[in-house]
Amino acid sequence: MTLLFIFNISFFNQLILSLFIAFLIVFISYRLKFLTINGSLATFFLAGIIFSLGGIKWSVPILTFFILSSLLSKARKKKNENVELFFEKSGVRDYAQVLANGGIGGVLVVMNFLTQNDFYYLLYLSSLSAVCADTWATELGTWKKTETYNILTFKKVEQGVSGGISLIGSFGALLGTFVIAFSGVFWINMNYIYYFLLIIVSGFAGSIIDSILGATLQLQHECNICKKITERKIHCGVKTNYYQGFYWIDNDVVNFIVSLAAPLVIIIFQNI
Ligand SMILES: [Zn+2]
């Protein structure tokens, strides 16, 4: 039944329209330097799948995340460029970042399409809520100089260091979860307030997991010149030294785990 659906005219129209919109968004994003070349390709595929299989209700939340986060990232960069030196990558997103943030969403839209089970939509919103919380925590938390503490030891750390949390960053995380919940919850046909809260709580839990992983397992280096802890392999023009974490757990791996963790929080919650 579902597979027959692929061949009918309205689906074909939706597919063409989806690919067209995906192309337009990617083209503009590339011109505005939101995406690298391989990031553009990944976004085109991912957006094409989500738009065509999910239609408007799956498209609005991820577009809300993508557009607002890209603008926020650009604005923050203008305001506080120094903090960029801590991050492994600049604000221009590459394919690994795109898939780390939206890959799970892509899998969930396919699952929903094949099973026609709306539970996957709730998981999707939860996953987006977590990646949005994580992104906005970083962007707002590094917007201007603010006190930042290690999430586990509560010792003061440099702003922008993985595992660091601040008041404004936590507010950013919460705001991110609200925006995603608001962008998608009205397509769930019952118990808005319950699901709204579930998306916020699971997303915020995701951003806490993100900070804990950042403080523990994520790869970090130390600069030989300025002694700062950074995700970068090169700092102050020289190669950095290993500081802590697993070599294969970079920021993208952490983001991917977070995008998976938030839906798991929902699954556990629903089964209690
Ligand atoms: Zn340095």
Automatic annotation (TrEMBL):
Pfam family, one: DUF92
Gene Ontology CC entries for this record: membrane
Source organism, top-level taxon: Bacteria
Transmembrane segments: 6-27, 34-52, 95-115, 121-143, 164-186, 192-213, 253-270
Membrane topology value: Multi-pass membrane protein
Keyword line: Membrane, Transmembrane, Transmembrane helix
InterPro entries: DUF92_TMEM19
Localization (cell): Membrane
Record family assignment: Belongs to the TMEM19 family.
Protein name, UniProt field: DUF92 domain-containing protein
